[in-house]
Amino acid sequence: MRPVGTYLAPERFLAFLVTLGVATWLAANRFPLSRAAMIGFDVAALVFLLSVSTLMRRHDAAEMRNLACRNDANRLLLLIVSSAVMIAILVAVTAEVTARGRMETPVKILVIGTLALAWLFANTVYALHYAHIYYLPEGAGNRDRAGISFPGRSDPDYSDFVYFAFTLGMTFQTSDTEITSRAVRRVVTLHCLAAFAFNIGVLAFTINVLGSGS
To answer: How many structural domains compose the chain?
Structure first.
């Protein structure tokens, strides 16, 4: 049987979407839609991040190459869907922050926690995407596509790509790494633009939430 990642989407991302839908639906039975969306996202993001954490123990380049080939379906769509989820979460946060009345402490914690998880989720998705791009085969040969040069590392592992993605997510630029391909450069440009807009939103919402007294 063909792995689902070769024709639909990576299994972890599909699990995230299913968890998001189910958790949001369950939460909507007790809370307003904006809060239900945040709760659903928080649960799904935690499940996703916990599943990704198991990859951090895998330092075998051969296994990473295998995973890249097994999860090659709809990678661009994955980034688009992830961006759409981020926008929906920001809309939900906006609805909660701009609602009339005093924001209760549990709601403040929910909003801040959701923003933190959204930031972690988005940068982790990009880290996995960079690893995927790097370890796909170049043409019909056995060479990796690469596109990122890590000093002192010929076979980078997932922790290297997490470092690369989160550096971009925090500073909108690379540090000691070098981008060597147009494909990676395009993704980095999109990543930096999205990170800049999202970080501004997170800062504004956090100040608003912490400063709301009535």
So the answer is: 1
Residues 75-127 have pLDDT tens digits of 777 888 888 888 888 888 888 888 766 778 888 899 889 989 999 999 999 99
Give the CA-trace dihedral at 92, 168, 166, 13, to 10 degrees.
60
Distances (CA, A) of 33 to 28, 30, 47, 73, 156: 6, 9, 21, 32, 42
Residues in the chain: 214
Residues 6+ apart with CB under 8 A from 201: 90
Which of 195, 202, 200 is CA-nearest to residue 166? 195
Token pair of 120, please?
């972690």
Rounded Cα distance, 106 and 60, in Å:
43
Domain enclosing residue 134, as ranges: 4-211
* 22 Cβ neighbours under 8 A, 6+ residues apart: 40
How does DSSP assign 123-147, residue by residue?
HHHHHHHHHHHHHSB-TTSS-B---
Q: What share of the chain is helix, strand, coil (3-state, %, to 5)?
A: 70, 5, 25
pTM of the complete model: 0.90
- The pair of structure tokens assigned to 52 is 């990704």
CB 132 within 8 A of CB 75: yes
Predicted pLDDT of residue 108: 86
According to the model, what pLDDT value does residue 142 have?
Answer: 75
